Amino acid sequence: MLKKILFVIIVLAYTVSQAQVRDSINTINKITPYAVKPFYPVTATDKLKRLSKRHPYITFWKELNRIGLDLSEVAFVNWNAGGANSVAGLLNVDVKRIYERKNLRWNNEFIARYGINKQKDQEVRKTDDHLEINSTFGYRKDTISNWYSSAKMNFSTQFSNGYNYPDRSNKISTIMAPAYLFLGVGSEYNNEDLHLNVYASPLTMRSTFVLDQDLANDGAFGVEPAVYDEEGNLISEGENVRTELGILLTNEYNTQLFENIGLSNKLSLYTDYINKFGNIDVNWELNFNFKVNQYVLAKLGSHLKYDDDIKVQEENAEGELVDAGPKIQWKQQLGIGVIVEL
Predict the structure, then answer these.
(1) Strands 261-272 and 281-291
(2) Which end of the chain is more exposed for a tag (fewer CB within 10 A), N or C?
(3) Phi, psi of 27 (to 5 degrees)
(4) Tell me, what's the pLDDT at 58?
């Protein structure tokens, strides 16, 4: 009889222990269900989802949103030295998006400027007009090197008609006339500590667009002009696109000269392999930025350009406009305004 009672007790104890083990396994499965699914591999997407849940603010993008407005105004009332009332404004927009992760770097930039001036007894005149989009994609062999193998795209044009003031009857430029597109591959050196960027491309295609047919017929900005017969009748219209292949060098450098004085330099050099190789097109911007406080900034700027395809027209002794050939173009600006970074 005693043996039977002991046997029953042992059987009951074993049954209870197995039930407790099953309950523990079920509890673990409810807490960590993936622990009992070892046959499904964890993919990179799953890891990224878990990382984003743990660190919802992590990002590989850097961004800059900068808007500036320069205003100047002069008014005279009974001023014996004379003068003309005037008001001027210049709007600047600079938007950057930079993606950096391990060996990849993708730099995108949107630049826009538009300025106007109004003086007494004169219509509104344009003082600045520029639209530019840049995109550079680079890959480096390791995370230590500052050298990238890069592909670069640059597009630039303007917003509205340009005139040789005071003549407003004939436009000398307009939107997409001209427009420039650079596409190339090369090597880029980018050092964020020195705020220095240098790009060299031995193979860059430059396309010049003149989509205004009147300007294209005149052969503006280097495109093939229209063909006329001896009586002045149009035989064939001018070309709208001119394509070149050459070498492109660019440089961007920013530094702080003094506590509230900064310098920014942007230089672009291009020469075509076939058309006058060694004749260099220059686009050079040099700006001194004087910071008054967080929002007020004064700027002294210089913009120098030379393009062998742009012919300057001058008035001869008979009062006619004739081509005077390519010449150095230079623009100087001095202004003070408000700048906001969003």
Answers:
(1) antiparallel
(2) N
(3) -65, -45
(4) 73
Q: Which helix (H) or strand (E) holds 217?
A: helix 213-217
Q: How far apart are CA 189 and CA 150, in angstroms?
A: 10
Q: How far is CA 102 from the centre of its chain?
A: 22
Contact between 3 and 10 (Cβ < 8 Å): no
Every domain of the chain and the residues it spans: 1-51, 59-341
The reported pLDDT for the residue numbered 251 is: 97
pLDDT tier at 333, thresholds 50, 70, 90: confident
Instruction: List 99's β-bridge partners, or say none.
Output: 61, 106
32/25 Cα distance (integer angstroms): 11
Q: From the CB of residue 72, how many other CB atoms can be counted at a distance below 10 Å?
A: 14
Say how far apart CA 257 and CA 6 lie, in whole Å.
95
> Distance between CA 169 and CA 178 in Å, rounded?
19
Query: What 3-state DSSP class applies to 138?
Result: strand
Average pLDDT on 270-288 reads 93
- Residue 205 CA to residue 185 CA, distance in Å, equals 10
User: 283, 267 in Cβ contact below 8 A?
Assistant: yes
| pLDDT, tens digit (0-9, with 9 covering 90-100), for 307-332 | 988 877 677 777 666 677 788 999 99
Record the tokens describing residue 57, joined without a space: 């603010």
Residue 131: pLDDT band with limits 50, 70, 90: very high
Nearest to 51 by CA among 107, 101, 98, 96: 101
Q: Which residues pair with 149 in a beta bridge?
A: 139, 187
The per-residue pLDDT for range 162-187, each reduced to its tens digit, is: 998 888 888 999 999 999 999 999 99
Q: Which pairs from 154-162 meet CB under 8 Å and 24+ separation?
A: 154/180, 154/181, 154/182, 155/179, 155/180, 155/181, 155/182, 156/130, 156/131, 156/132, 156/180, 157/131, 157/209, 158/129, 158/130, 158/131, 159/112, 159/114, 159/129, 159/131, 160/126, 160/129, 162/126, 162/129
H or E segment to which residue 214 belongs? helix 213-217
Q: Is the CATH number 2.40.230 carried by domain 59-341?
A: yes
